[in-house]
Write a structure and sequence with these properties.
The complex is a heterodimer of chains A (333) and B (738). Chain A has 333 residues and is mainly β. Chain A is built from 1 helix and 23 strands. Chain B is elongated and about 105 Å long. The chains are: A mainly beta (333), B alpha+beta (738). Chains A and B meet through helix 1 and strand 4 of A and helix 3 and helix 4 of B.
Chain lengths: 333, 738
Amino acid sequence: MRGKVLALILLAAPAFGQGFAGLGTDATGFALPERGPFAFPADHAAHPAFRIEWWYVTANLTAADGTEYGAQWTLFRSALAPFEGEGWASPQVWLGHAALTTAETHRAAEKLARGGIGQAGATTAEAWIDDWRLADRMTAHGDGFAYDLGLEATGPLVAQGDGGYSVKSAAGQASRYYSQPFFRASGSVELDGRTIPVTGTAWLDREWSSQPLAEDQSGWDWFSLSFDDGARLMGFRLRGTTDYTSATWIAPDGTPDPQPPGALRLTPLRTAQVEGRAVPVEWRLELPAKGLDITTRALNDHAWNLLTIPYWEGPIRAAGSHPGHGYLEMTGY
Amino acid sequence: MNALLSHWRRHPVQALMLVLGLALATALWTGVQAINAEARASYDRAASTLAQDRLPRLVAPRITLADYVALRRAGWQVSPVIEGDWNGLRLVGIEPLTMPSEGGGSPDFLTDGVILSSEALDDPRVRAADLPPGLALTDIGVAAGIFGQDISYLVLVSGAAPPGYSVIRPTGADLSQLTESFHLNLTAFGWLAFGVGLFIVHSAVGLAFEQRRAMFRTLRALGVSARRLASMLLAELLIFALVAGAAGVGLGWLIAAALLPDVAATLRGLYGADVGGTLNLRAEWWLVGLAIAVLGTLVAAGQSIWRLWRMPPLAPAQPRAWARESARAMRMQALAGMGLWLASAALLLVPGLWAGFAVLGALLLGGALILPFALAVVTRRLGGGVVASWFWADTRQQLPGLSLALMALLLALAANIGVGTMVGSFRTTFTAWLDQRLAADLYVEAADAETAARLLDWLGDRATVLPMIQTEDTLDGRPVEVVGMVDAPLFRRAWPLLQAATGAWDRLAAGDVFVNEQMGLSPGDETEMGTVAGVYADYGNPMPQVILSMDRHRAAYPLPLLRYALITDLPAADIREAFPTVAVQNQAAIREASVQVFERTFAVTGALNVLTLGVAALAIFASLLTLSSLRLPQLAPVWAAGMTRGRLAGLEFLRTLALAALVWALALPMGLALAWVLLAVVNVEAFGWRLPMRLFPGEWLRLGGLSLLAAALAAALPVRRLARVRPAELLKVFAHER
């Protein structure tokens, strides 16, 4: 049933052809994103007038012995109909994903909850589903893993795209999108009963939309990179009849420098067989305007979230002109 | 082949008997199979639909939505359910995002407002779905709109149970297990009827073969090989089997469709198992039904074909030879029957339901095999004048030809007496027990704790109020019902204790337990819940049950008290008027409903009994009809000696009645033995309770009359034929003397 329900909430139309996970479907009745400044703190909370929204944190962590870990905390909101309803009548459905990655293993877990009753939700202060929580700490657990990380912002929020209006296709599909790429993370991860203290960085993406993909777009490759010199890069490629790439260069002080479509060049270098699919796990990224030419390598080729809607999400290392680390998300493979 | 088939053209009634016997046997067997299959399909559907019925339940006096959300936010893996009675259905509201569905059979509910139901209801929200009967399924939001926001119970999806909630483990005993013995009983009856039907087939085939001995001899003499002859006869039988089998399956379907509503009502009443009242036609029945018809024909005809195979081409074609051979076979049969009876007695020592049925089968089959010999012995003792001596000797001469039909009658009568005695004993005990159990005047149930409190306030001192509560739990590794009982003079006086330790009621109050007979324990035995102080009768309950004092029950299972027994003069209508949502039943109504369940339970066995008796009467008819033409050579000399045709016919008629009466007299002890096995062995194994056996002589007399009537009807046509036989035919006997 959960599979069917998930299909129901993510695929408002019963077709995967409508963009990945139905994200390209029609937005009738829902609000559409508009250009303009964000209204904080209200925009930290949920936007039930829009069809889909997410809170997305990825953390690159290191233990005292140098072992690297990646942690993912995600909350999706999906509306079967616009706006919030009373109690059980709420059309809002919430979906949580949590994952922990090492070079050897990748664990992922999933939670579902309906809105309106308080089991899951997002206010200006926190986002939660059951006992998974994101505020000044992020906590989640699944089968054989858990994490509890304190998050401390060391830089400003960053508006993606045109002042927070992020265009996703040549046809003009767009979302509201901001990030907090400057979290310092510290706390512990737990794997198979062992608790390990860790420190590192984390990156928050906040995005809401009603039709973020064009109909022909089948998936994406999404990078968030923190370079050793303090700069950050957000870049993605949306795969469709023609690929659409977009990127934001973020200076060490947090000043965003949005790049025009096509400026970032992404080239898969090596694919790995993951769960029977060929998934590119090594990439070359070029952004000539910033003198960027790097290759990225997955910490664990098999960072596959084998959840109801499966996708690849894992920590990566960058080498070349700008060494650093970050996260890669690949969907639609 | 044409020569072989010409026999049936000349004996259409015999052909009809063969087809009818086989069709009836197949019909009864497939009918029972169809009923069982339908019931099992319902159980499977129930099992695959309701995940919430298989997971542990968490209960508390009140569970609010806020309680649920608090539990989830603290990490407990629970899912809420709101359910209640709605339009006569059990409406279950689930939360599909947190409720696991192992069977994958549940729909996508959220905000579409749909109610899935097993029945089409006049409500725009209802959509008919393939759900177990009596069940409706919907989103928890819809259920909350109907029953209110409070959560009925939580389902523990995984992990540990949160503190403050009582865990009720699912009984684990699923419906197919609970109802297994019921279906086994039905199956046994199906086989019994099938066996009786096969007797007819055997008899018809045997006679048809016997009558064609001369033809076989001629064919063999003309050079037809034994193999070819046998295979042609097999082909002939196969055609009969297929035709009769098809008719039988159709008829069985009708029987099943007619009986299913009663069976469904029984299953609901006894086990709470919901089975649809309508039958679905399944393709596999046709195949299985036809297969069993062919198999039965082969078994029934095997002996005849074997004899034919071994018959020397020029064997004498006289019926008397067959009769003489049968006399020897009769003694062998009687010996085999004795052996079966011994085996039956020995099987009594083996535990288990199947062993119980084996005892029954051996008892019946043994009796059937002994019957011809017993009849021969009895008739030899009878005698008197010349005519009487000839009468009995001629009766003995006829025995081989009639024995199979008489065996069928014996089996039918014994089964009727046995089952009748069991049902009667059950009814007498059960109704007396009901009167004890339903000692209070009114029984009320409130929908929620708040209404219950108002009701108690309203009643004030106009009624003595005895709370009743029952949960399910596991005791010593088995699922049990746990009942909480207040210490009231009414219960002390009326509770049907079968065995009790001294001061049993005081000991119950002090922490001991009572158990029902189904637990199989005795006073003084230890259980995880306490020492057994008493054992009580609990007929009709498929589950083992334990009674704790109300205080102990309240401490162990903090559930709201919603059900009460009232000792009061208040009319039920007054309470209904003041509290429309409270279910009020008076003692008489409950008693009536229980008796009805009981009657329906045995309506099926009763119907099968009548059908079996009908089959037996048919068998006698078939045998007499075929025998009548063969008997002329024996009757002609008596006629020649001066006895009129009318007198002869009268004696023939009397003989049939005498045989039926003798069979009835022999069936009586066998039926009582059968009843004893049913009551003391099969019932104990199947249901867990033992009932005292009671005797119903009036019923026996009625059956005796019935069997005489059946015999009279069966004999009427052949005897009429004899009375009108032309003297020339009788004279021919001497002219054609072989």
